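Hello again, I could really use a second opinion on something today. I owe you a coffee for this, so here goes:
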Amino acid sequence: MVMYTVPVDGVGPVEVTVTERGSGAPVLLLHGGAGPRSVDGFADLLASTRSVRVLAPTHPGFDGTPRPPALDGIGTLAQLYAGLLDELDLVDVTAVGNSIGGWITAELALLASPRVARVVLVDAVGIEVPGHPVVDFFSLTMDEVARHSYHDPDRFRIDVDALPPAAREIMAGNRATLAVYGGKTMTDGTLADRLADVKVPTLVVWGEADRIADPDYGRAYAGAIPGAQFELLRRTGHVPQIETPELLRDTLLPG
């Protein structure tokens, strides 16, 4: 785990914690509202089975990390990660994001950093699709979150009351930070139209059982991006990196 300090216009220097694994072609892996631990296992899998260097940042404010008050939106997070790629002098980067991490990835693509060669949106949120709203996440109990997030929720349910106090505190902090970045609706009414300006190759990957944002929402996401490909993952929900990690890996980086 490495701490980098990255300047962000209008915010100032921002400290961001990044875990790095493997060696080879760089992959920037951006987590969603479930927090950085939701991509840890997938990052290990990628680094151990593909020739890639996986960089997995913790969005400031998650897992108790500091967040400058001015770092309060998805666009500023995208600027932060564009600056991180500059700081590390990386090229030919594949940027992969799940849920709000996918939203950040979409905004990163719109920044047109020459360092980003390809983007992958995994069950991303962010756009508005008539008739297919993103679920009101903040109204859900943890049991309901599991039912909306997984094809097989019984395998992944969390008994919050059984967790130690420190873990419950982190979960509450992550939920509060998610609300700062994504707002109540987890959407930006301008994003769908702006996606027409994305120039890099884009893959949109979706779990067929996603009930946070359904597959038709994902198809609309892909349809808004010129030339984007859409892949539906069977027996998978909102977080493929947890539920079907090998299938997601083979879709992103065929062996």
